[in-house]
Fold this protein.
Amino acid sequence: MKKLITIVLGLGLMIGAASAVEVDVEADRKAFVKYFNNVFPNVEFADYTNGVYAIDEGSREQFEDILDGIPPYEENVEKGEAEFEKYGMGDCAEFKDLSTARINYPYFDEKSQQVVTLEGDIKKCYNQQTGKKMANMKGRITRISAYISNQAAGQKINVKVESEGAKKAYAKGKAFFYAKRGQFNMSCADCHVYNTGKKARADILSPALGHTTHVPMYRAKWAGMGTLHRRYGGCLKNMRAKPLFAQSEEYRNMELFHQAMSNGLEITDARYRK
């Protein structure tokens, strides 16, 4: 218990450091992983790609049964491939090599001084090819994103935070992840770090480690696909806080931090969650 408290305090110290430009992503990641190792000592690091199914055996059996059948996201991925081809998205520079495209995101763009996400570039490419806009959180954007992401299944996340601008964005994203908000005065970390494995109503709270490996995802709760930013909005609603717009600067910065904490984990094409 003493060891666990020390790690929690260490995570708390990281929060305080989030406002400074001097950040150490690898130190943050190691502390993050160490915390979960202590809470769930029997869970292998690689298994965190499976989210809550890595920590709850009953849920894992249901998950495997779904994967053994016809997973509800498969049709969406097939449609995403057809849409990718239909709109000529392979002509966009970002998507000429699909074997590496998913692993390139998110990243900090030095020219715009902004974090760029996969879905952000999908929207941009679609607009270039069709002259039309695309919804941010569900529908076509999730199908195309899932298709692109599937091409990188098995590759390891390797987010780089090197420039001063990237460090500032990362620090802001980390601060947002740990900040208290809403009527319930909660943070993302309250559920998905400190209370991981506990129940919120009928649901088991999933570990933040590995969250970004399986997005976009099909959720039974949604009866459809959604992006990571849709999930962020849902979490803010659960805190009784006002959700932000998908692809807002705050969400993009948090995605940079969130993804960096899963560096070393593999992208998975198992996209089902409760």
User: Anything to note?
Assistant: The chain has one domain: 1-274. Confidence is low (pLDDT under 50) at residues 15-20. DSSP finds eleven helices and seven strands in the chain. The two ends are 31 Å apart (CA to CA).
